[in-house]
Amino acid sequence: EYVNIDGGWWAGVGTGHAVRNASGYLEYVNIDGGWWAGVGTGHAVRNASGYLEYDKKKFPNGMNALSEYIHKRSLKFGMYTDAGKHFCNRDQNASEGHEMKDAELFASWDADYVKVDACGTTEKPEVLMSKWRNALNATGRPMVFSNCLNGCTFVPDEWKPWCANYSNLWRTCEDINATWVSVMTNLDSIVGKGCYGAPDRWNNPDMLEVGNGNLTDVESRAHFSLWCVTSSPLIAGNDLRNMSDVVKSILTNKAAIAINQEYAGNAGDRLFKDGPIEVWHKPLLRNEHAVVLLNRGDAASVTITVPFSKFNISEGVKCCVGDVWTSMIETMKSNVTRHVGPHDAAFLRIAACP
């Protein structure tokens, strides 16, 4: 039995204007699994009208009161359900066959975000996600639609373009954990998918593990750099009440977040790979470029040199190369070079010098 309340942050949801805090984030408080009445009994409770009941012991004042409490603090309210016949804890009576009822329920609680998981499904993912898209739209309330593992992963031939048409964000991989191997595995799930990322539509390689487990500060910084250059959702998975100054400085780096939010077309993607060396690139406004030079290797530092021509920068153009983490700016011509340690990444913003 569990209820997770996670702090999460996303780009704007098509409103034309989004109010942000000083760090550049929109703030969501999302209720995860375990909020329904009957949790852990094997059968979630629905009332005579077919709507799910919430657990009154865990939420004695009701969901509307919780939603109001969150909204009064200029935060957004997120809810969770499962697209299948049962929830991930095996409680029956989940959302399959009840899509419209559950969408109406979340709208009546003034939810701003709905995560739909994929345990116990019996219909095809495309069918279920189409039903959920239509049900959420029919409520008339704007809600971010998060597809969690209903199709769309990097399992060969599973990901299809419909993923980007039916939801605002779609999980591309299994759950992340706080290890370098897991971070790299989830990163691999979005290779070649940058063309589908755009405002209101995001590849989602899962939440951030910055500051968690055995990830070093260097690995956490590289992890955050890669999620930013790929315009992935920045969902903090650490305890926000108890984090080091280094972790806080990573999560609140304004230059990194600005790159995550900025679009001049598509999201970032891997440009090329050579053994443990990878170069990730995102086009920015004003013909600028965000670049991550990644060393996935375990032991040796490497020197990574990339010609500006790889970023479609004309030969001979003098460029100002800014380091996102140190704020240092260098003038370079023809190429960019960085020495990168194991499990580390250089995060750069490149622009033609004035």
Observed structural traits:
15 strands, seven-stranded mixed β-sheet, alpha/beta, six-stranded antiparallel β-sheet, 8 helices, 354 residues, disordered N terminus, 21% helix, elongated
Question: What is the multimeric organization of the chains shown?
Answer: single chain
Q: Count every helix, treating DSSP H or I runs of 4 or more residues as helices.
A: 8
What's the mean pLDDT score? 91
Give, in spatial order, the strands making up the sheet with the most strands.
1-2-3-4-5-6-7
Q: Please count the beta strands (DSSP E, at least 2 residues each).
A: 15
Distance between the termini: 58 Å
Q: What share of residues are in beta strands? A: 15-25%
What would you call the structural class?
Answer: alpha/beta
Gyration radius from CA atoms, angstroms: 21 Å
Instruction: Categorize the overall geometry.
Output: elongated
Low-confidence runs of at least 5 consecutive residues:
1-20
Q: Give the ordered list of helices and strands.
A: EEHEHEHEHEHEHHHEEEEEEEE
The helicity comes to 10-25%
Reported for the largest beta sheet, the result is: 7 strands, mixed
Summarize the structure in words.
Helix content is 21%, strand content 23%. It is built from 8 helices and 15 strands. The protein has a 7-stranded mixed sheet. Strands 8-9-10-15-12-13 form a 6-stranded antiparallel sheet, with helices on one face. Strands 11-14 form a two-stranded antiparallel sheet. The chain is elongated, with a radius of gyration of 21 Å. The chain starts with a strand and ends with a strand. 44% of the residues are buried. Residues 1-20 have low confidence and may be disordered.
